[in-house]
Amino acid sequence: MAVSRVYRRFRSERARGELGDAAIGVLTQLRKKGPQTLKSLSDLTHVTPGSMSQTVNRLTSDGYAIRVSDPTDGRKVLFEPTSKGLEVEASTMAQGVSWLDSEIEQLTDAERDVLKQATDLLKRIAGS
Amino acid sequence: MAVSRVYRRFRSERARGELGDAAIGVLTQLRKKGPQTLKSLSDLTHVTPGSMSQTVNRLTSDGYAIRVSDPTDGRKVLFEPTSKGLEVEASTMAQGVSWLDSEIEQLTDAERDVLKQATDLLKRIAGS
DNA sequence: AGGCTTTCGTTAGTGATACTAATGAGCTCG
DNA sequence: CGAGCTCATTAGTATCACTAACGAAAGCCT
Question: Does the N-terminal or the C-terminal CB of chain B have fewer CB atoms within 10 Å?
Fold first, then answer.
């Protein structure tokens, strides 16, 4: 329940952005791990290929990413971010969480440490 | 990010239920706090009245809750759960999180304690 | 080599959740 | 009483997820 609440607050707090959180997440993956196929993107975020196709369509049709054919496997399509995409990703990640920053600043050191530990646990629970 | 991941996993893990998590959440509020107006429900979950109207429409049109006019204020509409609604809420809350239970069982006592503390912090951060 | 199966990506259709904006109905207060 | 506020609803839009069906490419097996 607590997780749901934080997530909802998180989304509503920056629904104003040009892209939704799933789309931004894809750009983050592309920046961190380099060009990826649709399949690997959908595996990374535990989403069906159909859903991921929709998300990357938003990205490509708005110029945040481009499709590149894989030369070694004709079935595969690699997605890579454009400079516009990287820019949006960076600025969204930077100022989109200012609300969260200020909330976290009001915590004690001990509390921040609890959150830090909990983060690892939550990642583990989410399954990667 | 960790919160997003857990939330997505949580939703996908029981998307099979009859109702979505927002709708179940409303039923939980109604059970805990008694009949509520649309406004108070939307305030509790930090959602606009328009969104909440849609959610309660799902509940009422499927027989999980009913509308009751407030005798003291003609503008207000109280929502209360039906027995069917309470039943669905209870069973969903009970067995819908079996995945989460088993994940948590695999943690150590200390880790569970961290999560427990983090829960309170997250609730505070979510603002409610 | 030819055919069956698997993998990959896409599209179509649906559902849940959220938002804004506009509207109408009912209170409240000067 | 009338102006302005509150409450609920509706309409329209966007995101994010799902399943199902499809075509194209690759792999495997006889």
Answer: C
Report how far apart, in Å, the C-alpha atoms of B110 and of each of A114, B10, B104, B113 are.
11, 23, 12, 5
Q: List the single residue in A with minimal CA-CA distance to B11.
A: A4
Q: Does domain A2-126 have CATH number 1.10.10.10?
A: yes
CA of residue A14 to C1' of nucleotide C22, angstroms: 24
* Distance (Å, whole) CA A61 – CA A56: 8
Residue closest to C21 C1′ by Cα = B50
pTM of the model: 0.84
Q: Give residue limits of the domains in chain B.
A: 2-126
pLDDT digits (tens, 9 = 90+) for A50-96: 999 999 999 999 999 999 999 999 999 999 999 999 999 998 887 66
Burial B4-20 (b: 16+ CB within 10 A, else e): bbbbbbbeeebeeeebe
